[in-house]
Design brief:
Helices cover 30% and strands 18% of the residues. By secondary structure, it is α/β, with parallel strands linked by helices.
Length: 336
């Protein structure tokens, strides 16, 4: 918030605090956050990338999105902040200096042309490489040489991996999932975290012998649910990932406790982040969405659900007692 105030102009909620803690926990190799649209997922990723670069915590940061251009928007924002943000420059650079960035020039590898090195403000030596990638680009052999050493990605940010207009196509969903699992995930080193029983894996830090310990690699995945079979739905169900759903509002039962300590007075939709949107505003959104037949879109973008909650509940109105005397049964008509 101090480093990039323009990206944090709206109130920070308990959900943001929770996501920041997960991102800062270096023992977690794989973290997935499903948050409502407009929560600031991309801005959070950009701030985290900048932090890693200025304190030289990561050597090779890869940003992956649905397209190369989308990923490049993020990395170019990072480049601009590093080069022009006076707060960053005054804090992390000696007086009279600033971070410089050097483009990765290799005409034979088009997908890397917008990647860049972050260089020491005094010596000019590169210490962090930041590269954008589209999910439709090749990932095999994703490594670079830095100061005479080959380096693989040790930090991967995945943001909005699937396109809204393509995610409904089962063939494209399958291709994205296969690329993610079999090509993107193996980009990192072959170091494996320890298995914690039935739960997700964790790195075991060794700060006693190595105060500067860093995990071999980490992966952050951020998205909204765009389809019941979207890639993030599978990740949310995978126990290897530390995954959290952070909806903007939800359908609450009467008497259910809300995050701010209040209690739902009756069954209905209630805000979970009143700093951003009030319960009356939520109820108006739901009313309008129902009228327009847009509850599915609202559920996916604001509630972190693949389908509206009403579609998942069974009402007594859906049941009917069996009566042999009814004509349609006597005639053998299928009414299922």
């Amino acid at each position: 918030k101090w480093m990039m105030p323009q990206a944090c102009s709206k109130p920070v909620t308990w959900q943001h605090d929770r996501s920041y803690k997960l991102m800062d926990d270096e023992t977690l190799p794989k973290v997935c956050g499903c948050m409502w649209r407009g929560a600031g997922k991309t801005s959070t990723a950009e701030a985290k990338i900048i932090k890693y670069a200025v304190i030289r915590q990561k050597k090779f940061i890869m940003v992956v999105a649905a397209s190369f251009d989308k990923a490049a928007e993020i990395t170019e924002n990072v480049r601009m902040e590093l080069s022009t943000n006076e707060r960053i420059i005054r804090t992390f650079c000696p007086p009279g200096t600033r971070f410089s960035t050097k483009s990765f020039e290799d005409a034979s590898i088009a997908q890397r042309k917008k990647g860049f090195f972050v260089c020491d403000p005094v010596t000019g030596r590169p210490h962090t490489f930041i590269m954008p990638k589209g999910i439709d680009q090749p990932f095999r052999g994703s490594k670079i040489t830095m100061m005479g050493t080959w380096v693989r990605p040790d930090m991967i940010f995945v943001d909005d991996l699937e396109k809204d207009d393509e995610v409904t196509n089962p063939d494209i969903r399958k291709k994205v999932r296969e690329t993610f699992e079999s090509k993107l995930m193996p980009c990192v080193s072959d170091d494996m975290p320890e298995v914690q029983g039935e739960f997700r894996d964790r790195w075991r830090p060794d700060y006693e012998n190595n105060p500067q310990w860093q995990p071999p690699w980490r992966i952050f995945y951020m998205d909204t649910i765009k389809d019941p079979d979207a890639n993030i739905v599978h990740i949310l169900a995978d126990p290897e990932w530390m995954s959290v759903r952070m909806p903007q509002f939800k359908l609450c039962e009467e008497g259910e406790k809300l995050p701010d300590g209040s209690v739902a007075k009756r069954k209905g939709y209630y805000s979970l982040v009143p700093e951003r949107i009030s319960t009356p505003q939520v109820q108006l959104l739901v009313k309008r969405a129902k009228k327009k037949g847009a509850m599915t879109t609202l559920a996916r973008e604001r509630m972190c659900l693949a389908t509206p909650p009403e579609m998942n509940s069974i009402s007594s109105k859906l049941f009917k007692y069996y009566d042999e005397s009814e004509d349609h049964v006597q005639r053998g008509i299928d009414v299922t």
